[in-house]
Write a structure and sequence with these properties.
It is built from 1 helix and 17 strands. By secondary structure, it is mostly beta strands. The radius of gyration is 23 Å and the shape is elongated.
């Protein structure tokens, strides 16, 4: 009798684990992003053009994420993503301007860095789950960056480190029997003179638990704080791998 109870307990546990495995899922991905930078920044009365003044052009960044979906209906799922988004350049100035109280003059050699790297924490609900998958939720984006200029005897910067709440939408469209899919992800917020829009479009091919994606990402940020302004657009194509368990 005791052996039979033990056998039944093991069977029940196996069924429970198998059932949970069917409804608990994890997705992880990573990609390389070829970034094109443009825009301007200001810490004072004059705007500084990232291309004409600072010599910015292209850069390569990385992004990786992990998402966990669980079977509890009232609790949101969770997604974490980190994006490396920074560029550095040395340029010879052709005009004079001020930045954060320092004056940079014509013919100065200026070392500059703009860092918009950020980490997203997202809580979301799965609204549709068939050949169309739709998730909606809320993202809190934590910037840990700055804009810094340095020349002989001068070193000035503005910090970009505020948390920003954003609406989150993620849709995926399966092409049945092919392994192909298309997806789109958006994080958006606008308040006053501040606006952040981050859109990603991708095409992917999935074989088993592993997928390959190619896509395009456009990140646009407009932030204003007193006499400090950041108006930057970073966009470009990416290629990455996805693991769906």
């Amino acid at each position: 009798m005791q052996k039979r109870l033990i056998a039944l307990a093991i069977l029940a546990a196996s069924v429970s684990v198998s059932s949970q495995a069917d409804i608990i899922g994890a997705t992880a991905g990573a990609y390389m992003w070829k970034q094109s930078w443009e825009g301007d920044v200001k810490a004072g009365s004059q705007s500084i053009d990232m291309n004409d003044d600072l010599g910015y052009d292209d850069e390569t960044g990385k992004s990786f994420y992990v998402a966990l979906e669980h079977p509890v209906p009232v609790l949101p799922n969770i997604r974490l993503q980190h994006t490396s988004l920074d560029i550095s350049e040395t340029s010879q100035l052709s005009r004079t301007f001020t930045f954060d109280g320092d004056t940079y003059t014509n013919a100065d050699s200026v070392n500059s860095t703009t860092d918009l790297s950020h980490t997203d924490g997202t809580l979301y609900y799965e609204i549709l789950d068939n050949w169309v998958n739709l998730d909606v939720g809320l993202t809190v984006r934590m910037f840990d960056g700055e804009v810094r200029l340095a020349a002989t005897g001068r070193d000035s910067s503005i910090d970009i480190d505020a948390p920003i709440p954003m609406a989150y939408v993620n849709a995926r469209f399966e092409l049945p029997l092919t392994g192909l899919y298309a997806s789109g992800l958006g994080n958006v917020i606008a308040y006053g003179d501040n606006k952040v829009t981050d859109m990603t479009l991708a095409l992917g091919y999935e074989l088993g638990v592993l997928g390959l994606e190619i896509g395009y990402r456009n990140f646009d940020v407009q932030l204003e704080d007193d006499n400090e302004e950041t108006n930057v657009t970073v966009d470009g194509y990416f290629i990455g791998l996805v693991l769906d368990i």
